[in-house]
Design goal:
Layout: H1 3-19, E1 20-27, H2 33-43, H3 49-61, H4 77-82, E2 89-94, E3 99-104, H5 112-119, E4 124-130, H6 137-148, E5 153-159, H7 168-185, E6 190-194, H8 218-224, E7 238-239, E8 242-244, E9 256-260, E10 265-267, E11 271-275, E12 279-288, E13 291-293, E14 295-297, E15 301-306, E16 317-320, E17 328-337, E18 343-344, E19 348-353, E20 356-370, E21 375-378, E22 382-383, E23 388-399, E24 412-416, E25 423-429
Parallel strand pairs: 1-3, 1-4, 4-5, 5-6
Antiparallel strand pairs: 2-3, 7-16, 8-9, 9-15, 10-14, 11-12, 11-16, 12-13, 12-15, 17-23, 17-25, 18-22, 19-20, 19-24, 20-21, 20-23, 24-25
Helix pairs in contact: 5-6, 6-7
Length: 451
């Protein structure tokens, strides 16, 4: 390893942290999420001429006087016909100051699962509120999901201020209520901005109608919010996706372990441990894009070669021997249930963590979160669609899962229905924002799969 390599790693990590922002929009139905995204794209000159022409044509065919900017993101026919967002719409755009990947997520309660998808990798969440309605249950649900997913920055966009005569007291009341609620959930940073997505007030350009507001516009905040987390400094983790053995005349003994580095940095010569077996070796080489390198870091996809010929297969986790996570068959976590069928105590499931999938049983559901007052409803027995609750899962094989608070990549998992492959719940290991629950005393399973 050379100092030049270290310098390059640091420069790349710093570049990624300062120039790319992933963010998601969320809010209740008709709060104006798609219109806000369309306004951002339009006013930041990120819409191609043919796209704008198509939107103008579609708007005229629906009888609208001007272009309906929501159509820039609502691409499904059902979305356009109903005027709602159903699926997550991803858009990519850039300004001279930063590049953006945004996820416009649905507002209906039955599509909360899509918000989990869109916000799971977000650095920032924009939660919209209709100024006429204030904070409602779905607003609290979206705040809870953002807190559960450890989204570090939340923007409260109080939309449709033009419909309440741009009244400062209306904005102040909503901002105070939301900030207090999100603060109880542990959201680290909340920024409230009064806007009118339809008229363009405080979206890209400052509003002359709200001279009482002295903060940034939405785009100004998106361009300047610090994205300080650096995955290269996290616990190094490489989930093995594929074992490469070409067995050719050129490479008769080549044996490499390929995968995407989930977090941290790996170096040639470093002592590593393979989990769950616990076998140890040293990194003999790292191949990146077909060329050997001395060091690699997240999120690069690499092939690692080890000095010793040990048993490593898909689903194993390569970690530094000096930073080895503990393995366990008992996983305590907070989950967001996303399936239409309930998740019940004693249910047999598959647990997918990084590249490893194992059999498991839901041993206990200690509590379900009540969104109104953030209280925990004890022992609900089941979780239904869009519920957030605590679970204790027993796996057939030990897993090395980090706390979600330490790593969003290696602290998350999915619960899957073994019968048809349906995703049942998205899980975050550890406490998240929920109170610690006593995970002992779960009843024994006598239906098989009793590990």
């Amino acid at each position: 390893m050379t100092s030049t390599t270290d310098t390059a790693a640091g420069e790349l990590a710093g570049l990624s942290a300062t120039t790319l922002l992933r963010f998601a929009t969320a809010g209740s139905v008709d709060d104006g999420k798609s219109t806000l995204v369309g306004r951002l794209l339009h006013d930041s000159k990120s819409v191609l001429a043919d796209q704008l022409e198509a939107v103008e044509h579609a708007s005229r065919s629906r009888g609208a006087e001007g272009p309906d900017l929501a159509l820039l993101t609502d691409g499904l026919r059902a979305e356009r016909e109903q005027g709602i967002t159903i699926d997550v719409a991803y858009r990519y755009f850039a300004t001279p100051r930063r590049r953006f990947i945004l996820a416009d997520t649905p507002g209906h309660v039955q599509y909360t699962r899509n918000m989990v998808t869109g916000a799971s990798t977000a650095d920032l969440a924009v939660v919209l509120v209709d100024a006429r309605n204030g904070v409602i249950e779905q607003t609290r649900r979206h705040a809870a999901v953002a807190a559960l997913l450890r989204v570090p920055h939340v923007v409260l966009a109080v939309n449709k201020m033009d419909l309440v005569a741009y009244a400062e007291p209306v904005f102040a009341k909503i901002a105070e209520e939301f900030t207090a609620y999100a603060g109880e959930l542990g959201v680290p940073e909340i920024t409230a901005i009064p806007i009118s997505a339809l008229a363009g007030d405080n979206v890209v350009e400052p509003s002359s109608n709200m001279d009482w507001y002295g903060g940034p516009t939405v785009l100004e905040h998106l361009e300047t919010v610090p994205v300080s987390h650096d995955l290269t400094s996290c616990h190094a983790r490489l989930p093995v996706q594929y074992v490469i053995r070409p067995q050719t005349a050129e490479h008769p003994d080549y044996r490499g372990y390929a995968g995407q580095i989930a977090a941290g940095t790996f170096r040639v010569g470093e002592s590593v441990t393979v989990l769950p077996s616990g076998r140890t070796s040293k990194v003999a080489g790292i191949d990146l894009l077909g060329r050997p390198v001395d060091v690699a870091w997240t999120p690069q996809s690499v092939t690692v070669l080890l000095e010793d010929d040990i048993d490593v297969s898909r689903g194993d986790l390569i970690v530094p021997s000096s930073d080895t996570p503990s393995t366990s068959q008992d996983i305590a976590a907070t989950v967001c249930h996303v399936a239409d069928t309930p998740l019940v105590v004693g249910q047999r499931v598959l647990l997918k963590h990084t590249t490893r999938t194992v059999k498991a049983i839901v041993k206990q559901i200690p509590s379900r979160l009540t969104l109104d007052d953030l209280s925990q409803h004890p022992n609900p027995g089941q979780l239904v669609a869009n519920d957030i609750g605590r679970v204790l899962v027993r796996t057939a094989e030990p897993l090395a899962i980090d706390a979600y608070a330490d790593s969003r990549r290696t602290g998350s998992f999915l619960l899957i229905d073994p019968a048809d492959g349906t995703t049942l719940a998205a899980g975050m290991a550890g406490e998240a924002f929920a109170k610690a629950e006593d995970a002992h005393g779960a009843p024994a399973d006598d239906e098989g799969w009793d590990f």
